[in-house]
Amino acid sequence: MHRFAEQLPRITASGASAHSCPECATVVEPWEGQPAPRLYGFTARDVAIALARVAHGASYREAASQARTSAGRELETTAPATVKGKQRRAPANRHAQLVSDWVQTFAPALWDHYAATSWPAVLLLDEDELRYVSGAPRGTRAFYVLGAVGYDASNRPYVAGLEAVPRVSVPVWTKFLASKPGMPTWVVTDRGHAGKAVHQSWAATTTPPQLRYCEWHLARSLDNALPSGLARDDELRKALLPAMAGAKQWLQLNHMLRRGGYLNAMNYYQRIDQLVRQQIATRNPAMPNSTGALEEFFHQLDRTIGDRAARMTNKPRADALLKLLGAARNGWVDEAEWAEVIRAELTRHRGYAPQQRQNTDPKLRPSLR
Predict the structure, then answer these.
(1) Is 210 within 8 Å of 283 (Cβ atoms)?
(2) Would 357 be classed as within a structural domain?
């Protein structure tokens, strides 16, 4: 009897002998292991598990070490001897390139499997500046992340789009907004480049989006104009955010600023007075009026990436990692399902994974700096 090779070869971590499936306890033959990409030494399930770990915040080194160990392909686990004048290297088993390649190769397909193909009706837009510790007082800027959060049918926020960029400008934001079809009806952002890009992208349409400026950002700008010696729990500071939501509260804030003689804050109040009044007149309490859901994700992003941002200099690889972290925020991480998605992607390409390391930067010209 002939046994024909499957499109995805099967490999096991236990050698060429019969073994038991760890999930169903069924004894299987040596050729009945997990499907794997052709020319790979790891199964699609191994890849999915490693990517799920990265999505939940594990480093590439940690995920690579666990993948090699669980697959029975462990490398040297003892760190090499320190060479004078050079940084101590990690053990070979913790080399990060294995999982870094998997992230670039498979993360975009995982994201595309779940993500909506057009912009949602409600959209929050903002940018996050990732920095790392250095000799500078505030650290050193690594790159920016453009972020978009939408709302599903149950009014729950989800990450709708992410992109790493070396710098931020109106054209950069305009290109980001053009990356998906569709036009939102309600957009909340700060008073920076994103708002101008929204206006340029959709102002010429019959019914352009209603552009709202984040109430929290407006209140924070007023707060920054107050004297630094003012207590954080001062009644004036407590009144800033509520003042953005009602005409009466906005007028009361004016009186409080005048009584206190806070000239800088009064000047800023006058600059945004017309804007705030217009927003109050058309405010919908059932809709988001701040970018809070996106800011929350950005805080998580800062904690997860941290000083790793210093080593993230390649844009395609950074974008792929952002997709994994966004997938985790959206609750899309499922190791078994991700393995199926990876197998389906491999099957569409006759069992072969896309060629790795195609997106490389010219020497001394990183794409995120």
Answers:
(1) no
(2) no
CA distance 132 to 141: 7
pTM for this predicted structure: 0.88
Tell me what pLDDT residue 173 has: 98
Confirm whether 169 is domain-assigned.
no
pLDDT tens-digit map of 222-237: 999 999 888 888 999 9
Residue 4 has pLDDT above 60, yes or no: no
| DSSP-assigned states of every residue in 72-125 | T-----SPPPPPTTSPPPPPGGG-SHHHHHHHHHHHHHHHHHHS-SS--SEEEE
Pairing of strands 186-189, 122-132: parallel
With contact defined as beta carbons under 8 Å apart, do 244 and 219 qualify?
A: yes
**Residue keyed to tokens 């806070």:** 262
Residue closest to 41 by CA, chosen among 20, 64, 59, 17: 64
The strand pair at 19-20 and 10-11 is best described as unpaired
Alpha carbons 178 and 254: distance in angstroms, whole number: 40
- Residue 226 lies inside a defined structural domain of this protein: yes
Output the six-digit token pair for 43. 């199964």
CA distance 351 to 37: 6
Give the model confidence (pLDDT) of 86-123 as tens digits: 666 788 888 899 999 999 999 999 999 999 999 999 99
Sort strands 186-189 and 210-213 into parallel, antiparallel or unpaired.
parallel
Name residue 230's amino acid: L
Asked if the structure places residue 341 within a domain, the reply is: no
Domain span at residue 254 reads 215-289
- Domains held by the chain: number: 1
Among 146, 149, 196, CA closest to 290: 149
